[in-house]
Amino acid sequence: MTSTAAHMSHTNGTHAAGAHADTHAPPDDTSCVLVVDDDPATRQLLASMLARDAYRVVQAENGEDGLAAAYEHRPDLILSDIQMPRVNGIELTRRLRADVSMATVPIILVSGLHETTDKIAGLDAGATDFVTKPFDRAELWARVRAALRTRDAFRRLESVQSILAALANAVEAKDPNTQHHCGRMASLALGLGRFAGLGADDLEAVGYGAVLHDVGKIGVPEHVLLKPGPLDEDDWAHMRRHPGIGAVIVEPLQLGRLVAPIVRAHHERWDGHGYPDGLRGEQIPFGARIVAVVDTYDAITEERPYRKARSSDEAREEIINGAGTQFDPELARTFVQSLDVAPAPARPDEDAFVRGLTVEVG
Length: 362
Prior knowledge:
Layout: E1 8-11, E2 32-36, H1 40-52, E3 56-60, H2 63-73, E4 77-81, H3 89-97, E5 107-111, H4 116-125, E6 129-132, H5 137-174, H6 181-195, H7 200-212, H8 222-225, H9 233-239, H10 242-250, H11 256-265, H12 286-301, H13 312-321, H14 329-338, H15 352-361
Helix pairs in contact: 2-3, 3-4, 5-15, 6-7, 6-12, 6-15, 7-11, 7-12, 7-15, 10-11, 11-12, 12-13
């Protein structure tokens, strides 16, 4: 294939830049597809096929322009050739997948190559699917529609994430003494979860559990939450209800089966003297044990109206002293060790919502 001058155009059918508008062009709210290919004939053929199916098409004739177009137009789907000069389709995919905001955009790689190694490289980079040239139109349409259905599903989940973050932020707004607590909790919990070797599904549950651990405080009277001194027995009776209230709030959600046990049990103790259920040792869900450790660390190192913040070293010492009584002893030691290690980067196979948690609530 030959490289041509940088060029991007909108098209409805085969119209290039500067051509007259199509009076039957689809409205702007239709799905947008970005086609990236350095071969003009292939690019125009794909654009024409997609426009006939009422998709709005943006064209880019090389990988560099494709990256720029992806950020300018925020397409619902990207169709990219693999073999292109400078930035090929696999590198384009890899760069987009490194950005949380682009992590869920379906990317279908189009190639005349039949090599298994190329497909493996594309999948490792984060490609959603492949179409081989010469492509069958019916197959292409089927793969495009399937990818867009996946995109719609991700968008629904993104809406759920926004609702969950709003719940967490509502709790913080009610108790200004804990401002940004949920964001710090998510960062610490995900860091410890990665250090402990959790997979993506467990990390997602731990991340949401950390964000939502105190959502039940919505049901705690403000005079208790905002009390400037130590709580009395009546106050503690109110406060001890918040894990149960939080679990009831979270349980109906799609992730509730995984997250509600974490929310309910984050104040349980390893020795069985916690609340609300008096769970002991490994009866406590692993995610709740993670949240308990990082919650204590954050509480110690952040200032409150009735006490000064203490140092990280003091917090570490208190957590080690609580190992085997308040905390899972192995997890307490792992957490303290993890604080001295550079944060582990999010793995490419982690769910985008896991990687985006701290962005949403931080």
